[in-house]
Write a structure and sequence with these properties.
The complex is a heterodimer of chains A (about 350) and B (about 400). Chain A is built from eleven helices and nine strands. Chain A has a seven-stranded mixed beta sheet with strand order 5-6-2-1-3-4-7. A two-stranded antiparallel sheet of chain A has the order 8-9. In chain A, a hairpin with a 4-residue loop joins strand 3 and strand 4. With about 400 residues, chain B is an alpha+beta fold. Chain B has 13 helices and eight strands. Classes of the chains: A alpha+beta (about 350), B alpha+beta (about 400). Chains A and B meet through helix 7, strand 9, helix 8, helix 9 and helix 11 of A and helix 8, helix 9, helix 10, helix 11 and helix 12 of B.
């Protein structure tokens, strides 16, 4: 029996939840070591780099638990980077999986490369790079769907704080001013599409974790807060609002499950993320509404989840993706002709 | 050519096919045998007569496309729910007419399988599959719509049998049915859900009167059914008076999650038809290429994918022996509301077609205007949206009433 057959993804949820709690007061590097110790950074990386070589579905409960617990670490990016680099930059991938080296991914923008002898010179501005100010490497998108790995301490790399909603894992802008990297740090064409597709499943998982936490908070509040002589949940308007949130939550969960089955391809993965972006936003906004004035306070964590969900929505470019999703559908259908109807 | 002449005489039901081979066989049979005139995405479409529908559905049964999970002892094909899903995916991918006996196949049949006597199973179930008996559902009443506990139709003892008096309403297809699954009260009204019993009432019995009601789509499918001291033999009582309804509720929970399992794939067929019609029209082909409509069509496509996910995970849960419980309400709520949004978008697009109107647009308008109107009922029948939300709040979230 292989390890994948002996394990169940759900078993990882409990481990991840415990690890998230333990990381609460640690800095990013200490968190990396702690999460690596629990095997969470290498869930989907191969065994050569110290990973568990499990399918992507095993990362889903890990990412969901991390986001439910508001983990302040770029776990999604780390898990993907470890596997991304395992074939071409094996030693570095091992260091990422072991928590010794930190990496993130800039989800927005792309850089241009010029060849200069045996090296490549990169220029451009990329953004939406979670925790870029605290990591050692950043993966950026290049022309033709390729990707490149850039050390953040290389000459010409400028990491800037960016305005953004997410307080827990803040995003950064990375400016590349003639940054020289070895040719071996360039990952082949097609890398980015694969990375984005996997990321969409994990973003959906992240949103699921946050949305689940929001619904639990809203449900708890509705059951305990009394107004007009009754708990809020006595009122049909509140009951129905929570029921709609539950429908959204289960829709995200089922869409993720389907995207990981044998029939799941890029279309199902995109659909899972798009469903999560839509329903996750409404669940977290709905949870704020049910909390009333309390939901608008800093101390009630619903707004932290809302911030993360909106950030994940932007990192996956949900607006662009839904348009592409529709266009792809339209392009695949032939104009009506009686014989082909 | 009649349907009976059109369909292949080769039955697939007995073939020992599984997985992809089973899907291929179902796909090939449907494409070879579905008459062009039955396809609502065809210019040749003409709504089938009752006789044609009966013949077509009987042929589908003999081909192995209905009665898939029912035991072979009662005429079923004895296959798994996974194969039921495969067959329904293939059914959904074609724009074929809805069953005229869905109440028989998806409500009465499963209830009889769960609580009927051996004699009832042998008498009723093969007749449903072979389309010798069409059924209708006699649950709602003028004073008991969503709240069935308030129903007033009475069943009283009469010799060895029962005598039923009362009125049912919104009884789809009663005019064409041979049997009505009637829910009637054997005790006082105050008993609410207790003392409810079910009967398979023959609609040609003395004292039964059916009156059609014209609905918003112009059709006369809805009916009122009046029962005036109708004598019903004990052999037509389904389940014991006090257990029948409770068992029916359990069956209905599963049915809500699994009935017309082809919906998501049919909605996809509708979406592809809509897009194909738009792409044939000069003005609409521009519009569907624009970002605005690309986004809105994308939203519909995502909802169809999510609906498929609801259906497929429910099937896997049931196959693995899980209880579906109230989760059927999630799928029902999802498909009914998303289909209404889609139908409204289809109408909006088609209303902007170029002049003179092309054949493609005429075909699409005929189909989508009907779908739009029919979809308005989808958030009402089989438990309204408000009832589904209440079930989710009460039974899934178990929200406190907190007085």
């Amino acid at each position: 029996m292989t390890m994948a057959e002996a394990l169940q993804p759900a078993e990882f949820a409990a481990t991840a939840a415990r690890a998230v709690t333990a990381c609460a007061d640690l800095d990013v590097r200490e968190q990396a070591r702690h999460l690596a110790g629990d095997g969470l950074l290498g869930v989907i990386a191969n065994e050569e780099v110290g990973g568990l070589a499990l399918p992507l579905g095993f990362a889903v409960p890990v990412i969901a638990a991390a986001h439910a617990g508001l983990l302040g670490f770029p776990l999604l990016e780390t898990v993907l980077a470890g596997r991304l680099l395992q074939a071409s930059l094996t030693r570095l991938a091992g260091a990422i999986v072991s928590g010794e080296t930190l990496a993130t991914i800039a989800w927005q923008g792309e850089a241009a490369a010029e060849r200069d002898g045996g090296a490549l010179v990169l220029s451009g501005t990329v953004a939406r790079a979670p925790c870029a100010a605290k990591v050692d490497y950043v993966v950026v998108r290049m022309d033709a769907g390729a990707a490149a790995l850039i050390p953040t301490d290389a000459e010409g790399v400028v990491v800037e704080e960016a305005a953004g909603l997410d307080l827990t894992v803040p995003e950064h802008v990375v400016r590349l001013e003639k940054v020289e990297i070895p040719v071996g740090s360039m990952l082949p064409a097609g890398t980015w599409d694969m990375l984005s597709s996997d990321a969409n499943v994990l973003r959906a998982a992240a949103i699921l974790g946050s949305a689940e936490a929001c619904l639990a908070l809203a449900q708890e509040h509705a059951s305990t807060r009394r107004q007009f002589g009754h708990a809020l949940s006595y009122n049909q308007a509140i009951r129905h609002a929570l029921a709609r949130q539950k429908l959204g939550l289960e829709s995200i969960r089922h869409a993720i499950t389907r995207s990981l089955t044998g029939d799941g391809g890029p279309l199902q993965r995109d659909a899972a993320f798009l469903a999560a972006a839509t329903y996750g936003s409404s669940i977290s906004e709905g949870a704020l509404q049910i909390h009333g004035g309390m939901g608008f306070t800093w101390d009630v964590p619903v707004h932290r989840h809302l911030r993360r969900i909106r950030t994940l929505q932007a990192q996956g470019d949900a607006s662009g993706l839904i348009s592409a999703f529709g266009r792809r559908y339209v392009s695949e259908v032939a104009p009506f002709a009686e014989t082909g109807a | 050519m009649s349907v009976v002449e059109a369909v292949s005489t080769q039955a697939l039901a007995g073939e020992n096919l599984t997985g992809g081979a089973y899907r291929d066989a179902m796909h090939r049979w449907l494409h070879a045998n579905l008459p062009a005139g039955f396809r609502s995405d065809s210019a040749a479409f003409a709504p089938p007569t009752l006789q044609q529908s009966v013949a077509w559905e009987a042929a589908m049964y003999h081909a192995g496309l209905t009665g898939i999970t029912w035991p072979q002892a009662y005429g079923g094909h004895g296959r798994s729910l996974r194969e039921h899903l495969i067959a329904n995916q293939e059914i959904g991918r074609l724009a074929m007419p809805e069953s005229v006996n869905s109440i028989g196949k998806e409500l009465a049949g499963p209830i009889i399988l769960a609580v009927g006597t051996e004699e009832q199973k042998r008498r009723f179930l093969p007749a449903i599959l072979e389309m010798r008996n069409i059924w209708c559902q006699g649950f709602s009443e003028p004073e008991a719509g969503s709240d069935l506990a308030g129903l007033r139709t009475r069943a009283t003892r009469s010799g060895d049998g029962w005598r039923i008096t009362g009125q049912k309403i919104w009884t789809s297809g009663a005019y064409r049915s041979q049997r009505c699954l009637v829910l009637a009260r054997t005790g006082p009204l105050e008993d609410r859900h207790r003392g409810l019993a079910m009967f398979a009432v023959p609609l040609d019995a003395k004292g039964v009167r059916v009156r059609t009601i014209k609905s918003i789509d112009g059709r006369e499918s809805f009916c009122e059914v009046f029962f005036d001291e109708v004598e019903v033999v004990q052999a037509d009582a389904i389940g014991a008076p006090d257990e029948g309804w409770a068992a029916a509720i359990r069956v209905l929970e599963i049915e809500r999650a699994t009935n017309r399992m082809y919906r998501a794939w049919r909605f996809e067929n509708e979406l592809r038809h809509l897009i194909s019609a738009c792409k044939a029209d000069p003005a609409l082909s521009q519009m569907v290429g624009d970002r605005h409509y690309a986004v809105r069509l994308g939203e519909v496509a995502v909802e169809i994918e999510v609906l498929k996910a609801h259906v497929e995970t429910a099937v896997e849960a049931l196959v693995n022996g899980d209880k579906i419980g109230a989760r059927g309400s999630l799928a029902k709520l999802y498909w009914s509301e998303s289909h209404q949004r889609f139908a409204a978008l289809a109408l909006e697009l088609l209303q902007q077609a170029s002049l003179p109107q092309l054949a493609a647009i005429k075909v699409a308008r005929r189909r989508f205007e009907a779908i739009y109107l029919q979809a308005r009922a989808e958030t009402i029948y089989a438990g309204t949206t408000e009832i589904q939300l209440g079930i989710i709040a009460d039974r899934i979230l178990q929200l406190s009433r907190g007085k």
